Amino acid sequence: MIGRLNHIAIAVRDLAAASAVYRDTLGAKVSDPLPQPEHGVTVVFIELPNAKVELLEPLGAGSPIAKFLEKNPDGGMHHICYEVDDIIAARDRLKAQGARVLGDGEPKIGAHGKPVLFLHPKDFCGTLVEIEQI
Ligand code: CO
To answer: In the chain, what percentage of residues exceed pLDDT 70?
Structure first.
């Protein structure tokens, strides 16, 4: 059901420092920071030949990554995003398999303007999973 790996999201406290690590130490192509107030994060996109890495810094009060950074003060991998062809069919299959879909179960428009859902990490090997309809 899942298709390509779309991105891996890494939560960081200091987006400028993290961008410098990816740009200067790892030699990656790093975008300018893009504030996404509706998602409570500022994002830097890193284009790799086969997938993206997204660096997420909290933006505003009640950012969805604030708690994660309290537990992981050095930052860390926050979620992994797989592409699906049909997000409603994917959701229904996941629920039928007993997986927990976060929120109200209805897809939201994600950071790339496409419908996304998040799946409970306890059901997926301790990893928060995002599915995105491409
Ligand atoms: Co994501």
So the answer is: 100
Residue 110: which of 37, 39, 13, 15 has the closest Cα? 39
End-to-end CA distance of the chain: 13
Hey, what are 119's tokens? 């799946």
- pLDDT higher than threshold 90 for residue 131: yes
User: Topology of 5-133 in CATH?
Assistant: 2,3-Dihydroxybiphenyl 1,2-Dioxygenase; domain 1 (3.10.180)
Q: Which residues have CB atoms below 5 A from the ion given as ligand 1?
A: 9, 81, 130
DSSP reduced 3-state for 73 = coil
Q: Would you place residue 110 in the very low, low, confident or very high pLDDT band (cuts 50, 70, 90)?
A: confident
Dist. CA 98 → ligand 1 center (Å) = 22
Contact 79, 33 (CB under 8 A): no
Q: How far is CA 118 from CA 18, 59, 102, in A?
A: 24, 20, 6
Domain boundaries, the chain: 5-133
pLDDT score for 15 = 98
Whether 47 is catalytic? no
